[in-house]
Amino acid sequence: MSGILDKERIIAGPGFNRWLVPPAALAIHLCIGMAYGFSVFWLPLSKALGIKDAIKCAPDVGFFGQLFTTSCDWQISTLGWMYTLFFVLLGSSAALWGGWLERVGPRKAGVVSAACWCGGMMISAMGVYLHQFWLMILGSGVIGGIGLGLGYISPVSTLIKWFPDRRGMATGMAIMGFGGGAMIGSPLAADLMKYFATPTDVGVMQTFVVMALVYFVFMMAGAFGYRVPETGWKPAGWTPAPAQVSNAMITQKHVHVKKVWGIPQFWLIWMVLCMNVSAGIGVIGMASPMLQEVFGGSLIGVAKKFGELDKGQLAAIATVAAGFTALLSLFNIGGRFFWASLSDKLGRKVTYVVFFVLGALMYFSVPSSSAAGNIVLFVGAFCVILSMYGGGFATVPAYLADIFGTQMVGAIHGRLLTAWATAGILGPVVVNYMREYQLGLGIPREQVYNQTMYILVGMLVVGLICNLLVKPLDPKWFMTDSELAEEKRLAHEKMAASEVGAASSASDAVPTGVVVFAWLAVGIPLAWGVYRTLQSVAKFFA
């Protein structure tokens, strides 16, 4: 089995169609992207014992007590720690094992990712069955989080090497899949829980098992679909610009991952990602209550503020807000592909300038559109913001490849994802704390987000300054020819070069039908997810 997973076994020969690699990456990212949608389980799990109504724990049963209790239901705030663990473990595991991934190749990393993510869901299913939350923390939170990190970075380096002519577009396609994972997984989980639910069971345990098995099939297919190009391979008809005339921001050399902690440009890009994500992720978590509290009854044509609405009206505006959240998810997904592809034309640095300048203007406009009661401008601003939030994730791998070279870009990207882990704590804390602080001062609910918007503008200004300071590396940071040769040897690279169709051998040629099937295998579930999301969006426009 180990031979099948060895990197030497996945080096593509002449005739291999590089368009088979993006659907392999999507197969993995669409599965692990369900991490974004895990909140669909919180409400059913919060009444796993009581079924209709939660059995509340005694006041002296705190977080640690809930880890082991079998006599009362878990609180939603306790369950939310799994979501936090996902992204902390994603960033830390990607940083720890990114170098290992570069040497063993994406197939082995993809298989380990599938085992961790799907195995973690099976352990979580056991945790639900036994009503032991510590098993869910261990399964999905820790083991699943490691699978997230490895799965997330597994295709980055490979895609950049297969698409040297379109780096941003290639990584944008894969990372779009991570954003789209919840679009498929959330409605699927909801349907499965409804199917498995009985008068004595909320159906979460069975849903975990089914989804783990389905995801395992898709992720293993994706892992075995990975192929890496020969050293020096380039697309037919494409010639890289000579060094003396090429973009100064795109290096032809390579940096070793062990050096990046000491390079100023790495930390500048780290701050660029951290500020962009902090601003966006804080809003994602509060999008639904923000819309409801700011516009209140006007969302359903009632001239009342949020605090004046009755129970039925609150339920009606919650439905509208759910459609708003679904609309934001579409822009989050679309932005990943759109902005990353556009960065191939604009350049990565200019693209991030657009993110920060346009984003700051959007955040700055929110208090005015709120005060004017202009829902269209309010919603439009957040749609643009969320597109750039997703675009920031999708563009940064290509930015790293431009600055640090392609040899170890996956490992460097892994270390950069610690910025995401940081932002996952910083962004929500700022937004939630400021909301509570403003409410404590007695400020009306429709105005409590105004100061927060200005703080987020400040974050984007910090990100803009850091981005403007990014410049080409000093030559001292790059590997020498002998160091690069040794790294290529450790990475089991085949020292050969060819162009598509240039060699007489066609042993790796792939029929067009196989390529079409691969894209349909990931495209149909994604299209179904978009359809289900559009159904929710329709409630907003209704």
Level-1 CATH class name of the largest domain: Mainly Alpha
What is the radius of gyration computed over CA atoms, rounded to a whole number of angstroms?
24 Å
Q: From the helix content, strand content and strand pairing, which structural class follows?
A: mainly alpha
Annotation field: number of helices: 19
Oligomer: single chain
What is the global morphology? globular
Q: For the record, give the distance between the C-alpha atoms at the N and C termini, rounded to a whole number.
A: 54 Å
Return the CATH topology of the largest domain: Growth Hormone, Chain: A
Residue-averaged pLDDT: 89
Order of helices and strands: HHHHHHHHHHHHHHHHHHH
- Number of strand elements: 0
Percentage of helical residues? 55-70%
Q: How many discrete domains?
A: 2
Strand content: under 5%
CATH superfamily of the largest domain: MFS general substrate transporter like domains
Name the CATH architecture of the largest domain.
Up-down Bundle
pLDDT < 50 runs, ≥5 residues? 495-506
Protein traits:
542 residues; Growth Hormone, Chain: A; mainly alpha
Q: Quick summary of this structure?
A:
This protein is an all-alpha fold and 542 residues long. It has helices at residues 2-5, 21-32, 42-45, 63-68, 76-104, 106-130, 133-153, 156-162, 167-196, 204-225, 264-295, 311-346, 348-372, 375-404, 409-416, 418-440, 450-468, 481-490, 512-541.
Description:
- The protein is mainly alpha-helical and 542 residues long.
- The protein has two domains: 17-53 and 62-235 and 509-542, MFS general substrate transporter like domains (Growth Hormone, Chain: A, Up-down Bundle); 257-470, MFS general substrate transporter like domains (Growth Hormone, Chain: A, Up-down Bundle).
- It is built from 19 helices and no strands.
- The protein has helices spanning 2-5, 21-32, 42-45, 63-68, 76-104, 106-130, 133-153, 156-162, 167-196, 204-225, 264-295, 311-346, 348-372, 375-404, 409-416, 418-440, 450-468, 481-490, 512-541.
- Helix 11 (264-295) packs parallel to helix 16 and helix 12 (311-346) packs parallel to helix 14.
- The termini are far apart.
- Mean pLDDT is 89; it is low at 495-506.
